[in-house]
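Field reference: sequence -> structure
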Amino acid sequence: MNGKSQVIIIMGVAGSGKTTIGSLLAQKLGWDFYDADEFHSEANRSKMAHNIPLTDEDRQEWLSALQNLIVLNIQTGNSIVLSCSALKEAYRNFLNRQSGDQVRFVYLRGTYPQIKHRLQQRAGHFMSAAMLASQFDILEEPRNALTIDIELTPQEIISIICKGLPMKLPSHEYLDKLNIPYESRSFSPDTEKGASNVAHVLGFSERQAVKTLIFQVDTGERVLVMLGGDQNAVSGNLKKAIGSRNIQMAAPEVVKETTGYIIGSIPAFGWQSPNFRSFLEASLLNEPILGTGGGQWGEEIMITPENLVKASNAIVVNLTVKENQ
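Structure field:
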């Protein structure tokens, strides 16, 4: 799966937590999320709302739409998470027919009493507890899926998925595509946010831990500024490099809108639009290796300064030393 787009299908009967886990996983990975329920026809929805089980014929158009979704995203190099019941092996084979090893299944496994209790507590969904028996009747448990007990917490399930599947983040795929060497390092997602904290748990200096800061300019432009974890930019240097006296740190919601990532997990490359400017503090070129966010909190990318410049198309400039010194 290295260097390829990936599709993770979260499967199981209604009430197993597919949508919850799928959306949380997609958010953590920075991937697009799709819920297979949204692809059902109105006729199918009506049948299920009236407690009429769907037939294989009812599901065919639905499965075809999902297969098209999977193929399209793989062809365009986009990794996605899809929540889908995928109860029969034939359904799973159909979804995976044109995708090979780029599709992986995660099976959320629960007992009938466990899931019946969940459905009885849930309102506003077309799948009622009365339909659950029909789902268990046709369920063919997968042999080649990562199987996880639904009694675990969502956080525990997400952790198992991330450890159990050989996934690459978009930042890794970006570096692979450019043939830029790097080392992927992991740390506990419970680590307190901050470059210095990451440096401490991974055993390198704070100076080597790159802070990725997004600034807003009065012209509407947004720029990336990269500093060592123990460095602060001189205001005059920063304004001169950016070319404006009217700059400010971007708010968290602006960071998310600009980069697609939340603060604390921003990779320094791969998300920039054409003509987006990135600045790297010049003294960091003296470091043998730098650490930068991988796009998911708990993942760090170790990369040489020269390759970081290449990957981010960064402008190297003095940001930390007053020019009259």
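Note: The mean pLDDT is 90.
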